[in-house]
Design brief:
This protein is α+β, with helices and mostly antiparallel strands. The chain is 60% helix and 9% strand. The chain has a 4-stranded mixed β-sheet. Bound molecules: glutathione. It comes from [Candida] railenensis. Belongs to the GST superfamily.
Length: 261
């Protein structure tokens, strides 16, 4: 059994435009000592590069490695909800993100499951339909478009809207600007990807898949204000800037490697 300590080191396997960004935000908030390894998505399929599969059999991001200061065997964690829960349980020593009310802690746990169990699946399904349209061979694209639009509008987009309405209502009812209680919690951190990154910071794509013009800020004013809170958080700004630089570096390195081949 390892003894966790603030001296532990972390390596985050971070895929661009992925769920891993929120783990980075959490590592910053908890002031942990981390490094990031950057992976770029494949251009046409938008899948992770094969090298991620050598880190973890899922081949997905985020993966978080933890190297313990006491020399005990390192850990390799997968699944955003679990990673967030583990980090907060073991490293939130000042209780910055841990509500004092046990009922609030349970509500946070609900969102950790809800985000990956329900909300994110809808967005992934919409993304896969989008990729299907792009990958359809010439001459069949109109069929692919017709079928994927029909599936989206009969199921995924309806479900997504239902979830957006429910989340808007949850924030309005809470009345604090956060999903649970009066402060930032893991609920806000896990939802930053499916709500802020996938929707409010991705408006053009939302307009395309939703099939009609949605005025996001008017339809979902509480979610809009919450998304602005995420975007303007100084540590969120810091990780955005840091990753922009690292992604640029990685693109340049890969281009140089291709030229050498
Ligand atoms: N349920 C997992 C999902 C992980 C996942 O699907 N990650 C995506 C990035 S957002 C990925 O690595 N996709 C690349 C691929 O599927 O090839 C989690 O919450 O961490």
């Amino acid at each position: 059994m390892s003894i966790v300590s603030q001296g532990d080191k972390f390596l985050l396997h971070w895929l661009d435009l992925s769920r891993a960004h929120r783990i980075l935000w959490l590592l910053e908030i908890l002031e942990l000592n981390y490094d990031v390894k950057v992976y770029l998505r494949e251009e046409t399929t938008w899948r992770a590069p094969a090298e991620l599969a050598s880190v973890h059999p899922s081949g997905k991001s985020p993966i978080l490695e933890i190297f313990h200061a006491d020399g005990s065997p390192p850990l390799k964690l997968a699944e955003s909800g679990y990673i967030i829960q583990y980090l907060i349980q073991n490293y939130d020593i000042h209780k910055i993100l841990t509500p004092s009310d046990p009922r609030d802690r349970e509500r946070v746990n609900y969102y950790l499951h809800y985000s990956e169990g329900t909300l994110q699946n809808l967005l992934v399904s919409i993304l896969v339909n989008n990729v299907a349209r792009q990958l359809a061979p010439t001459g069949t694209k109109f069929v692919a478009k017709f079928v994927t639009n029909a599936i989206n509008s009969a199921y995924y987009v309806q479900e997504w809207k239902l979830n957006m309405d429910n989340l808007e209502y949850a924030l309005r009812k809470e009345g604090t600007g956060y999903f649970v209680g009066k402060h930032l919690t893991a609920a806000d951190i896990i939802l930053s990807f499916p709500i802020y990154e996938n929707v409010f910071d991705n408006e053009e794509e939302v307009q395309k898949f939703s099939g009609r013009k949605i005025n996001l800020s008017k339809t979902y004013p509480n979610l809009y204000a919450w998304s602005s809170m995420v975007r303007d958080d100084p540590l969120y700004i810091k990780i955005d800037e840091q990753m922009e630089d690292l992604v640029r570096e990685k693109i340049a390195k890969e281009a140089a490697r291709k030229r050498r081949r």
